[in-house]
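pinging the channel bc i need a second pair of eyes. not urgent but kinda urgent?? the chain im working w is below, pasted from the shared doc
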Amino acid sequence: MGLISKKKTVFKITPALRKYLKTYGREEKIPIDYLDLTEYTEHITLYDRSKKDTLWVTVVYDHSHADMLHEGLKKVYAILKSAGDISVIKHLSIDRIDLCLYANTQPFRIRVVNMLNENHDYFYVKQADSSRIYGLELEHILSPNRIAYFVSNDTLIEEHIIGIPADQFLKNNLVDRHFEETRLAKEFVKFNERCFVRLLGDMHTSNFVIDVTPDFEETHYRMRAIDFDQQSYERRKSVYLPQFFKENKHFVDLVKKNLTLESIFQYQREERALIFNRIRSSRYQLKGLLDTMVLDNLSPASHVEMLRKELSVHYKLDAFLKCRTMGELVKMSLKTLIRKSRLPESFTKTR
């Protein structure tokens, strides 16, 4: 059995979270919504270049509904990418609309093509889930990455995060060894730490990508989360540590092979210091988010109770035992960044 046994509940946006989103420019009015996209007439299995089922389907609409959708989706794309300047859409075409039937919120993926140069881009239309929104905001504020997204009523619009899916990276690169092992190992340690500090769970190889940047002498890697559904939901501490997912074993092995325990601790401390600097630079926005999050119901009480016990043991800090919500646990986790804490657990420790 895996670390996560069943799908989580979808949580509605509360009035307090809605107010935060308006304050920080994350709410927009759009001409279509998620329910409009559900009115398809049929769907066709989508295969990749190797004729393998992608687990996505391409949806088909009747002609009149498709025309309305395509025009609306181009305007949505303009809001997402160019602050609503609709002059950019005159050369755009909606090439394909795909649906992921197995995912929690059954997202739609929109393929947009520039007819002048055949360049394409993607964005996503999803059911708005407050825990996912908290995940997106925490990623935007605390990670080295910036996220473009907005909500409209109960619809969530997200940009496509560019990178090589981690499972594909392992499949295509482990055999040829076309990567710098030490740099990749270092990035996995830092990614592991980022996820744990802000309690982002379920980061196995299908849920993050690797952004590869060649330099004139070497290659740099950054691991980026692409799925935020498991933000502060599960009860086990191990769910928030990517090192414990069996799918990530190859990355863990790279860490053990290429890094000393002292180096691991150094990179963990470095990442926590970077997160602390981001907290200082965005402290008012982060405070607004956490003040809302601590009052929100994002997980069953039994999950909160178990996780607070495990975090209390991990940090050797009884203050975690007083936390009553997942938001309070995230807030307490971030507070530990300004305190002298024990060395984080190594990659040799069991769950």
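so The first helix runs from residue 15 to 23. and The beta strands are 42-47, 53-60, 92-100, 108-114, 120-127, 149-152, 155-159, 164-165, 208-214, 219-225. — does that match what u expected or am i reading it wrong
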